[in-house]
């Protein structure tokens, strides 16, 4: 592997100084599950890597007045097993539990997953239905961006130069029930062909529904048409209509793993299955 | 850039100089001579390089050695004590859960970590724990049987 210099700053001032080193390619790193293979294959060529795991708050899961704050360097295995995440955002714990395999989940982080911004990221549909806010920090201060705006394209995010993703804020949704499921060629250690998250949030006498798809568009996407249908009721006909709305909302690619047509068909199946799972949790 | 790191491997303390870009896998094999940990895909897919990091399985090909500063690493070399094989190693032999042997150190590490956190796993839990370890010879059945056998007899 090509040479680079590794730093492990203990505070943000030091981290931002490193991130803005003039004339250097500087990359933050967390779980290193993406950055090491990419560096080895010379798809990236950092001069400097900045390990963000020791920065304050990066590894914390914390309940606040506004919701649940998850540090960017919280690992998938921690998300999957955290009692707080399971209570407030079980759909995110389910997404995290399907990432890669045991060894990867013990290293890969939520923030790293988000900054890699693969369209197939398994935590993203959950973040979308939870309406999470991405918390970005730079020398100029902190800003928050809805996750739906954080993902801007394959491997493109709202992060600006010198800015760090420090965590996500999940609003508390009392009584909400959700589910995430995915389809891949193997049951583990494979990229997702179709990922679907659904969430039913109590509203009046019924539920507001949120539905999001992963791996079938340049970014993870919400499906408002399906959500409107389900808000009116969720009998078999409505579920089918919602799944067809998901079919219409996606724009998958043909690639080595699957044809676009197969992915689109499977969006219908997985969406129906996921909605059915959520309904089971409601009754 | 060189870093001085202090960590333990199989309980033995080491202080070493490592380069920023060196992986833990390369340092274990090339600096410490612990070649039981195998180089497979170097992509985090095959699990041949699995070691325990503070008791949890990780792919040592996907970890920078510099990050190991202050941590406890276990490799397959640490499994036998005083020449006596670990129960998992004995069970792998008894069940013929080894053919070429290349995946075995990683399988053993993942299995050891599983039994430490879940001493009585179901077959499904064993399969889930080993899902990041690929074997191209045995078909997995004998490996799963060996792990379940150790769980049953401990």
Protein model, in words:
The complex is a heterodimer of chains A (283) and B (154). With 283 residues, chain A is of the alpha+beta class. Chain A has helices at residues 12-19, 35-40, 76-81, 83-88, 90-97, 102-105, 110-116, 124-129, 147-150, 224-231, 236-249, 260-282, and strands spanning 5-7, 26-29, 48-51, 61-63, 67-71, 133-138, 141-146, 151-153, 156-157, 164-171, 177-183, 194-203, 206-214, 221-222. Chain A folds into 2 domains: 61-171, Uridine Diphospho-n-acetylenolpyruvylglucosamine Reductase, domain 3 (2-Layer Sandwich), CATH 3.30.465.10; 177-282, 2-Layer Sandwich (Enolase-like, domain 1), CATH 3.30.390.50. In chain A, the strands form 4 sheets. Chain A has a 5-stranded antiparallel beta sheet. A 4-stranded antiparallel beta sheet of chain A has the order 11-12-13-14. In chain A, strands 1-3-2 form a 3-stranded parallel beta sheet, covered by helices on one side. In chain A, a hairpin with a 3-residue loop joins β4 and β5 (67-71). The radius of gyration of chain A is 19 Å and the shape is globular. The model of chain A has no long low-confidence stretch (mean pLDDT 96). Chain B folds into 2 domains: 2-78, Roll (Ubiquitin-like (UB roll)), CATH 3.10.20; 87-153, DNA polymerase, domain 1, CATH 1.10.150.120. Helix content of chain B is 32%, strand content 18%. Chain B has helices spanning 24-31, 87-94, 104-117, 123-129, 141-153; strands at 2-9, 12-19, 50-53, 56-59, 72-74. In chain B, strands 2-1-5-3-4 form a 5-stranded mixed beta sheet, with helices on one face. The longest helix of chain B has 14 residues, at 104-117.
């Amino acid at each position: 592997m090509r040479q680079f210099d590794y730093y492990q700053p203990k505070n943000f001032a030091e981290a931002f100084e490193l991130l803005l080193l003039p004339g250097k390619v500087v990359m933050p790193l967390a779980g290193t599950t993406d950055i090491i293979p990419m560096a080895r294959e010379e798809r990236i060529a950092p001069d400097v890597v900045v390990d963000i795991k020791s920065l304050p708050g990066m590894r914390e899961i914390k309940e606040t007045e506004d919701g649940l704050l998850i540090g960017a360097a919280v690992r998938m295995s921690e998300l999957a097993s955290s009692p707080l995440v399971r209570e407030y955002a079980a759909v995110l714990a389910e997404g995290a539990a399907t990432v890669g395999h045991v060894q990867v989940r013990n290293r890969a982080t939520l923030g790293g997953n988000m900054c890699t911004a693969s369209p197939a990221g398994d935590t993203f549909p959950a973040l979308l239905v939870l309406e999470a806010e991405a918390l970005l920090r730079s020398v100029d201060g902190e800003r928050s961006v809805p996750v739906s705006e954080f993902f801007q394209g394959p491997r493109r995010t709202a992060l600006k130069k010198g800015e760090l993703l420090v965590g996500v804020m999940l609003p508390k949704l009392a009584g909400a029930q959700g589910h995430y499921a995915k389809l891949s060629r193997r049951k583990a250690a494979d990229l997702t062909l179709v990922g679907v998250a659904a969430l039913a949030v109590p509203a009046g006498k019924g539920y507001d529904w949120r539905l999001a798809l992963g791996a079938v568009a340049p970014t993870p996407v919400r499906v408002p048409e399906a959500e409107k249908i389900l808000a009116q009721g969720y009998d078999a006909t409505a579920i089918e209509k919602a799944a067809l709305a998901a079919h219409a909302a996606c724009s998958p690619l043909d690639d080595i793993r699957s044809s676009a047509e197969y992915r689109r068909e499977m969006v219908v199946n997985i969406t129906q299955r996921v909605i059915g799972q959520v309904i089971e949790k409601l009754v | 850039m060189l870093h001085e790191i202090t960590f333990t491997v199989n309980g033995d303390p080491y202080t070493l100089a490592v380069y920023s870009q060196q992986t833990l896998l390369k340092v274990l094999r090339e600096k410490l001579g612990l070649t039981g940990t195998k180089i497979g895909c170097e992509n985090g897919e095959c699990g041949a390089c699995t070691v325990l990091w503070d008791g949890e399985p990780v792919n040592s090909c996907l970890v920078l050695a510099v990050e190991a500063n202050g941590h406890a690493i276990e490799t397959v070399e640490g499994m036998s004590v005083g020449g006596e094989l670990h129960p998992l190693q004995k069970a792998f032999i008894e069940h013929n859960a080894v053919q070429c042997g290349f995946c075995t150190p990683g399988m053993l590490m993942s299995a050891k970590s599983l039994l430490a956190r879940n001493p009585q796993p179901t077959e499904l839990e064993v399969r889930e724990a080993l899902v990041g370890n690929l074997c191209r010879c045995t078909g997995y059945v004998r490996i799963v049987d060996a792990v379940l056998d150790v769980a049953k007899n401990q």
